[in-house]
Amino acid sequence: MMKKLINLTILLFLFTFVYSQTKTCNTKIIDQANLICIYTHQYQRDSTNKEDIRNENMLLLIGNNGSKFLSENLVKKDSMIYDIEKRNVPLEIAVADISIYPRTNFNYQIFKNYKKGKLVCFDRVFNDKYEYEEDMNSLNWKIEMDTDSIAGMECQKATTKYAGRDYIAWFTKEVPVNEGPYKFHGLPGLIVMVGDTKNHYVFKLKSISKTKKQVNIYYPILYTTESTREGVVKAKYDANQNIVQRLEQMGARFTDPLKKKEFKERAQRKAKQRNNPMELR
């Protein structure tokens, strides 16, 4: 019964998510990608559990004027939603089997604008959509003399600090672009691998390819709340601490007090396991 309740809650969330996407999934083309990089993102959400190491593929699309970074599963899920929208599939059918939708733990999209020297991050906390801007030149890199061969390329070491973590990166001049995964950039070559010194969050290049046909870089046009990076970090923390309340605000109903108590306790246990965000402050 408890499992059924949780599944119904997830179903309600997905239904709301699909509905919001079909209402606000407008985009505009801002560039064409010349390179497509796939990174394996290894992460540890629970700082107390070294055995719970997860992996997810992330995409970096690099154009002449900027780049876009996001989850590969987010792209697949959005493509399925777009297809459902075009075919006018009733929403009750679209969400009948939630297992068909690829899952991601990363709903952000990061755009770097080379000319403006700014990056824009779109993120979501439940149904709340946020947008904030950062200076691309905020990373203070220290390039070291150490070298290593990674992913079949000669790489050089560099270090920096960001959002409460110390990072080690390895970049290659064999791919002469000042780019990298997530918000990392600014080194004299593509960042092949970067991770914090505790290995809680690591990005490693899995593949790189030149585009053989036109691949557009799409920028979302949707209603968002303008915020700051710190504001979004706080919103995620607050939502994680009050997940039952947030679900009720989205329309979830707990008519049985005992079941609500059980669900709240389970949600709190899960929240405690999500104690290790990538950006600490």
TrEMBL record:
Q: Which domain of life is it from?
A: Bacteria
List the transmembrane segments: none
Q: What is this protein called?
A: GLPGLI family protein
Q: Where is this region: Disordered?
A: 259-281
Q: Which residue stretches does the UniProt record annotate as biased composition, category Basic and acidic residues?
A: 259-268
Naturally occurring in which organism (per UniProt)? Marinifilum caeruleilacunae
Q: What Pfam families does UniProt report for this protein, alphabetically?
A: Porph_ging
Provide the leader sequence positions: 1-20
Which key words are in the record?
Signal
Show the InterPro entries listed in the entry.
GLPGLI (IPR005901)
